[in-house]
Amino acid sequence: MKLHIERDAQQMSVKFAGWITDYIQEVLANQDRFTFVLSGGNTPKILFAELAKSPYKEAIKWEKIHFFWGDERYVPYEDLRNNARMCFEELLNKVPVKAEHIHIMRTDISPEESTEEYEAILRSYFGDAETTFDFVLNGMGDDGHTLSLFPGTAVIHETEKWVTSFFLSIQDMYRITLTAPVVNKAACVAFMAVGENKAKVLKEVLEGESNVDLYPSQIIKPEKGELHWFVDEAAASLLTK
Ligand SMILES: O=C(O)[C@H](O)[C@@H](O)[C@H](O)[C@H](O)COP(=O)(O)O
């Protein structure tokens, strides 16, 4: 695991934007497409704002990128809480992406239908390949959740399905989410965490004992791929190493 600690959220976004630009370029030197999983939440917004402007806007071959989502809140696309909507507003509407390369988790059909549809899309991309996505961007909630893998939920332990949906009673909504098996087959996964609210949980996730039911972010460990954490000094403030 590689830990990148930057002064504040802004610095972290700049560092991350430069790093992901180089990584995309490297991957595209050897293959024709780049598969990128986007994340919801507030933290990615500052990264998206960065990527949508110079020099990244011009440097990244956006037309070669295929976009997916790590999870979705089962609310209509028009709802401000919808993760796909946020990513379109903050990034995808501002850079030259190809509409046919964008795969949102649909919320205009039932959660079960949406899950099945997404699973089929992913299987059509990756089939039995040893590696799935080129890159997965993850956030981490103050409670240690990532994707829609919330503490104490059964979905943390899913071993077969790549996509699933369930009713999240603490938020009174359905969630659609990628699962650990498909994310852990990615070539590269990066978490972003900023702010003092994340400090305690970050310490537990990175330095505490393994307890994936309490700290689901711990279950994300690419089998063969790279794992990066981009954090700011406030989030890193309790780390000892
Ligand atoms: O839909 C979601 O809720 C997200 O995908 C979720 O997993 C998010 O990444 C974390 O909650 C962190 O969110 P913040 O960046 O807002 O802290």
From TrEMBL:
Is Lipid metabolism among this UniProt entry's keywords? no
Ranges for domain Glucosamine/galactosamine-6-phosphate isomerase come to 8-229
What Gene3D superfamilies is this protein classified in? 3.40.50.1360
State the superkingdom: Bacteria
**SUPFAM superfamilies given in the database record:** NagB/RpiA/CoA transferase-like (SSF100950)
Query: According to its UniProt record, in which pathway does this protein act?
Result: Carbohydrate degradation; pentose phosphate pathway; D-ribulose 5-phosphate from D-glucose 6-phosphate (oxidative stage): step 2/3
Which key words are in the record?
Hydrolase
Catalytic reactions of this protein: 6-phospho-D-glucono-1,5-lactone + H2O = 6-phospho-D-gluconate + H(+)
Enzyme Commission numbers on file: 3.1.1.31
Q: Which GO terms describe its molecular function?
A: 6-phosphogluconolactonase activity
Task: Give the similarity note.
Answer: Belongs to the glucosamine/galactosamine-6-phosphate isomerase family. 6-phosphogluconolactonase subfamily.
Q: What does this protein do?
A: Hydrolysis of 6-phosphogluconolactone to 6-phosphogluconate.
Record-linked PANTHER family: 6-PHOSPHOGLUCONOLACTONASE
Q: NCBIfam families, alphabetically?
A: pgl
Protein name per UniProt? 6-phosphogluconolactonase
